[in-house]
Amino acid sequence: MVQITFNTGGAMKTEEEYQPFGEEWKNELMKMPKIQIIALYRQLALEYQEYKYKVIECEWRYDEECDFYNTSCGSEYALIDGTLEENEHYYCPFCGKKILLLTQEEE
User: What values do phi and psi take at 22, rounded to 5?
Assistant: First the structure.
């Protein structure tokens, strides 16, 4: 990981301690050496690639014996009546990811 420090008119601050916005960010960026800017963009590109291939769905499995759903985010969810589709449940209320309902064959 690239270590970036910012001079904020006083003490030097690391990237975690200082998050500039708008024009302030542009001004700080213009002060940085080009090699540091390139390293920053490379790091952002790698992080994007990692994010792009992360699982963005929460897998739900229906447990017929107990009459509830087990979620891949570690929660349990029960419906009083109907199915997920009939109750317009499309996103996991626990983690916010899109629900992927697995059937017996997919497990």
Answer: 50, -130
Give this prediction's pTM. Answer: 0.48
Alpha carbons 59 and 46: distance in angstroms, whole number: 26
Residue that has been written with the tokens 């059937």 in this structure: 103
Q: What is the spatial distance between Cα 98 and Cα 73, in angstroms, rounded to a whole number?
A: 12
Compute the average pLDDT of residues 9-30.
Answer: 65
Please give the Cα distance from 32 to 3 (Å, whole number): 12
- Dihedral sign of CA atoms 9, 14, 17, 22 in order: positive
At 4 the pLDDT is: 53
How many Cβ atoms are within 10 Å of 73's Cβ, its own excluded? Answer: 14
Which phi and psi (to 5°) does residue 99 adopt? Answer: -80, 130
Q: How far is CA 65 from CA 14, 59, 62, 70, 105, in A?
A: 53, 18, 9, 12, 17
Domain boundaries, the chain: 5-52, 57-102
- Sole residue written with tokens 């975690």: 16
